[in-house]
Each structure stands twice: as C-alpha cells, then as structure tokens.
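Re: Re: ligand-bound prediction request (bumping)

Still looking for help on this. To restate: I need the protein modeled with N-carbamoyl-L-aspartate bound, output as structure tokens. Inputs repeated here so nobody has to scroll up.
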Amino acid sequence: MKLLIKGGKLVDFENNCFILRDILIDGKFIKKIDRNIRVQEDFKVIDANNLYISPGFIDAHVHLREPGFEHKETIYSGTKACAKGGFTHVFSMPNTKPSPDSIENLNDLLSRINESAVIKVTPVASVTEGIGGEELVDLKKLSKENIIGFSDDGNPVNSIDYVYKTLLNSIKTKKPLITHSEDRSCFKVGAVNRGKVSEYYSVDGIPNEAEFNMIQRDIDILEETGGHLHICHVSSKESIDIIRNAKLRGLNVTCEVTPHHLSLTEDVVMEKGAMAKVNPPLKTRVDVDRIIKGIQEGTIDMIATDHAPHEIESKKLPIDKASYGFSGAETAFSVAYTYLVKPRKINLIELFRLMSYYPSKVFNVEKEGTIKESYFANLTLINLRREYEVKSSEFVSKGKNTPFEGEKLNGKVMMTIYNGEIVYEEEN
Ligand code: NCD
Ligand code: ZN
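Reply:
Sorry for the wait, this slipped through. Here it is.
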C-alpha cells in the first residue's frame, strides 16, 4: 500500500518557504513530491489540508530508561511518546543499567531497540564504564558500532584525560563527545538555581559557574585536540557567550537547548516545587532571554527535549531529594512553538530546522532532516490552529512529570510517519 499525503504545506528549507505539494510514499521512502498527484487504487490517501509538514523531528537527547529503570519508561513507551511528539529518530542517553559501555551491553540495547522501538533510536555510548567516571570505555571498538557518540549524561566527565581522549577519537570516527557540563565542586546539595530559589528552599543551589566552568574547560581542551564537542542542555547566559566565541574561532562545538530552558524561569520552581526540578536548573529571565537570542543568532544548533521520565513518587519528595527531570517528548513542539514562533522570536521554518534539519547535519544522519524524493519517508504533520491544555494523565510516556501541567499550548502534532508508516495519529 502506497501512502499519498494530499494538500499539505511542506517546508522547503533550501528556498526558505512552504510549498503546497502532494507527497507519495512507497515503502520506506518518499517516491514523489508534486502538485496534484493523481489518486490510484492502491493508495491510502491522507488529507493534509491546512496542515504544515516538517521532516520527522530528530531528538538528540532522550532518556528511554531501559534497561534498568523500566518502572520509569521502556523503549516501547518512550518511543511511543516520542512518536506522539512528532519525533522519528531519537538518540538514547546512556544512564541506564547497565549502560552501553561495552560491545556486549551495546548489542543488548540494540536488540531491545530492534524489538520494541516504534521509531528509529540510535544509542549514545557511555564515556566511562557504567557512567561511573572511573574506567574509560574502549572508544575505538565502540566507534565502529551503530552509535551517535559518547556521553556520560546524567553525570559530567570529570577526567580531563578522558575528555582529551574522547575528543581525539572523534576526529576520525566522527563520534562526538556529548557533555553534561556540570562542575559539582561548585555546590553541595544543589537541587535548584542558586539565588532567590535556593534561598527560598534553604539549599545552597547550583550556580551558573557549575555549567559554564565545565564548558570553558572542555572548549579549552577542544582547542588543543580538535574533534567535535556537543554540549547538552545549555542553560546559562555565560555558557552561550562562551560557545559563541568558540564558534567564531572556528572550533567544532555544537549545542542543544531544551524546550523548558527556552520557556520557563526559576520562578516556576517556587510555584510548582519539585515538579519543576530539573538538571540543569531553570534559571533567571536574563538567562532565558540570552538563550532565545542564542537561537536567533545561530549559536544554538538544535532543540533537544532531554525527555527524562520519572515515577511520580520520586517527584513528590522534598526539593533536595526529588529526582531531576521532565517528561518532555510529548510537549516539545508545542512549547517551542508557543514560546518562540507565536511571539515572533523565530519563524516556523527555523523551528522546523532546529528540530530536524540541524540535528541531521550536526550528527551526519543521512536521508533524514529534509523532505526530499528518495529520502526516508519520515514526516510530521502539524495543525497550528490547535490549542490544548497539557494533561499529564493523557501522556503515553510512563513519566507524568511535567512543569507544563494545566498550561494552554498552541500547535499540535496530528500525525507522525516513520519509514512510510503512520506511527502516531491524533484521534480528534
Ligand atoms: C536526566 C535524567 O533524569 O536522566 N535528568 C535531568 O534533569 N536532565 C539526566 C540529565 O539529562 O542530565
Ligand atoms: Zn544531562
């Protein structure tokens, strides 16, 4: 059965516009893009009138929790949630048990993905065994496998030697070092942003230095080694200045920002408590405004969700004990659209680039990230006129932990097509 999508407005990144075209899908690939493709008997027709069509979103940062933490999420529930969010390819983070730190553990993960993922998942291998920081993995061996790069996300890589070696390894292998930049010597308890929120909760809080010191350190190493450094969930104004400068010097440093860091300030943490606790912590208005400027000026390469599902009990603990993170896959597009495109900070084409084209380019993902004949039929269909209220009870993710509960958002994913198959369809 061939799929024919009729009447949608597809994004054309090359010409920076939307065009009205039909898309014919045969098997896993886009067969033809044209005006008015004639319907034939064996076609299933999808009416995309009034819908915008983006290449399937690519998420560089999700926590699928399996193996080890299946009570939080599984590869099946997590990829279902991502499909609902419009994602067709996600990179899974290695803070699982075990982590993908050896060929054996990676193969186990790959076979689980093969069995239960509803969209494409490419693992990020860990830098150290069990993301413990002690023993470096076999970079050379793992680089030959189907992985995106190396990260200890959840934890920083403290060892300068390991950062050095992983960056050197990235030169030939094109498997970047992906960092969770957090200098934990900057605080004892942490939990929230240092300043008025940490005072409110009587904890010491996490200062901006914790992030930007580590980013500066890694960029200094990158300057020596060469290679590719990708920085996760950037959140502080200083970090963005540092990354901008490094880019201007020609270094291959890329970064991502999350939907929550570009939309919410630390004030939400006083209102919503641990439900708004995340690492890195939500920051001040000045930081959020610098992030938005960073997106506009091109310092920020992509939007990545940092989808971090947790069992609700672990979010109902006191602020210093509760777990960090949000279940973000299902709200990502709407949050970004509501906070960036609606108030005209960026246009819809640029948002689509940030969620598909740029990640495909940064991570050398072939035949994705653009709507083009012979490319994978990965498509996200969106209704911009839909407004809805976030209800975590409707999440398909096992994680109901969201700081957006009850918020009205605009722009809804209506359908997600992965490799020519409908993997999500909005019911009403
Ligand atoms: C992530 C998690 O729960 O795994 N939590 C978070 O607050 N971001 C870890 C991470 O991405 O650092
Ligand atoms: Zn992280």
